[in-house]
Write a structure and sequence with these properties.
By secondary structure, the chain is an alpha/beta fold. It has 14 helices and 15 strands. It has helices at about 5-15, 50-65, 70, 85-90, 105-115, 135-145, 150-155, 170-175, 200-210, 230, 305-320, 320-340, 370-380, 410-425, and strands at about 30, 35, 35, 100, 125-130, 155, 180-190, 215, 235-240, 255, 350, 360-365, 380, 385, 395-400. Helix 1 (about 5-15) packs antiparallel against helix 14, helix 5 (about 105-115) runs parallel beside helix 6 and helix 8 (about 170-175) runs parallel beside helix 9 (about 200-210).
Length: about 425
């Protein structure tokens, strides 16, 4: 690795206006030394304030018991309201369009109850190839639930032969081709495997042109890239909080429902008491009448202890700001991509992530990929491995330098180590 890059990394770190946020996270250690953690796309690191936030709720529970619902420092009955403003900033939504609740795939299925309304003519779902399996499982079962065969009801947008990026023009052409059959488009904004960021604005406009419902999985997008859900005019979205949002394993999810659906109480939905109007929630009425807004899709009361961890993380996002985080992310991945391209071992791998990306870079190792990954792990580089799909393709190492806690020296050290390992494998 060119020695000028380490000097450049140090200079970039010195100028980084977000550098102090790293000290607000626990960086895992091995042998008494901090690891190079590049796996925020799978599980974000723990903010040091997380235990404090959870402890406050434990103290209020201990001292107040049931009265904590009203008298806790953050009253539990309205705890989910603490996330409204932070989530609007992260998703580009209006306040009534978002609510924190449940888990991602639970919410996806809840949204599909309302928004996958197939007819004899329009019953198909468009997804992207290499979608995260959980999303495909949900789509597969929803299709079966309505009496259709997933083999014919689910259409996948795929890259062209020899490419890894799914071109926007190909997605739009696919929508045009199947416009009379499509009931729903379900897309991840950021593909978990390749790291590609999709042009949701263009896809949503095409969907609207043909009267097709569009929903989004934001698992790899929220806290990673700026989002404009209301402006993009999508019907619904859901996400998790344990990746880039750093809210802990299995952290609470959330949903977005566009305001045009808020007063359509004829939309079918699964129901629970937390979805009714707050002022009448304890009237114990027999029949369900949902409140207007995304909150009308809630079923159960807020999991306060899990949400306390969520609040600790989102408070850091408020301090950092989405745009500043995005600016640093572009610089981090750009610096890493530059070093990879200049590597003396560049012929041993292929960077399959396009320029339209978030924090993640996916590196396809041509030979001995698993061995390379295992050596990275042994050297205290924490990243992610995706095994090869067939004999023609190597496995993929996914790395995600996160702007809240990763440094430019982190990505330099990774590029240097990868080049060394690949060069050694030549002999």
């Amino acid at each position: 690795m060119n020695t000028s890059y380490i000097a450049q990394a140090k200079k970039l770190d010195e100028a980084d206006e977000l550098k102090d946020f790293r000290a607000q996270f626990f960086i895992p250690k091995a042998g008494g030394k901090e690891v190079v953690y590049l796996c925020g796309n799978s599980l974000g690191l723990q903010p040091k304030n997380t235990s404090k936030y959870i402890q406050q709720e434990l103290e209020d529970w201990a001292t107040l018991g049931v009265h904590g619902h009203h008298d806790a420092r953050n009253p539990w009955l309205f705890y989910h309201h603490l996330f409204t403003k932070p989530l609007t900033k992260l998703t580009g939504a209006k306040e009534q369009e978002v609510v924190a609740m449940n888990q991602l795939t639970v919410n996806l299925n809840l949204m599909l109850v309302s928004f996958y309304r197939p007819t004899a003519a329009k019953y198909k779902i468009l997804m992207q190839a290499k979608e995260f399996p959980s999303d495909y499982y949900a789509m597969e079962q929803q299709v079966k639930l309505h009496g259709y065969d997933p083999k014919t009801a689910i259409i996948e947008a795929t890259p062209r032969e020899g490419e890894y990026e799914i071109r926007t023009e190909d997605i739009l052409a696919l929508i045009d081709r199947h416009k009379d059959e499509l009931s729903l488009i379900l897309f991840s904004v950021v593909n978990y495997f390749s790291g590609q960021v999709f042009d949701i604005d263009a896809i949503s406009k095409k969907a609207s042109e043909h009267g097709i419902t569009i929903g989004l999985d934001l698992a790899h997008a929220i806290g990673n890239i700026p989002l404009k859900l209301h402006e993009w005019n999508v019907d619904f979205a859901t996400w998790c909080s344990y990746k880039y949002l750093n809210s802990g394993p299995g952290g609470v999810s959330g949903v977005f429902v566009h305001e045009r659906h808020h007063k359509n109480f004829d939309l079918p939905r699964f129901a629970g008491w937390w979805g009714v109007e707050e002022t009448g929630r304890f009237n114990m009425n027999k029949h369900f009448v949902p409140m207007a807004g995304a909150g009308g899709w809630q079923l159960s009361n807020a999991p306060v202890l899990s949400m306390a961890a969520h609040k600790a993380a989102l408070d850091l996002f408020d301090q950092a700001g989405v745009e500043r985080l995005r600016n640093k992310s572009i610089k981090l991945t750009g610096f890493l991509a530059e070093m990879l391209a200049a590597s003396e071992a560049a012929d041993k791998f292929t960077l399959i992530t396009p320029e339209s990306r978030g924090c993640q870079l996916s590196i396809m190792i041509k030979d001995n990929g698993r061995d390379i990954f295992d050596h990275l792990t042994a050297a205290n580089f924490i990243c992610d491995w995706r095994k090869p799909e067939d004999a023609k393709h190597g496995g993929v190492v996914r790395v995600a330098p996160v702007p809240l806690y990763n440094s430019f020296q982190d990505v330099y050290l990774f590029a240097e180590k990868l080049e060394l390992l690949l060069s050694e494998k030549q002999h």
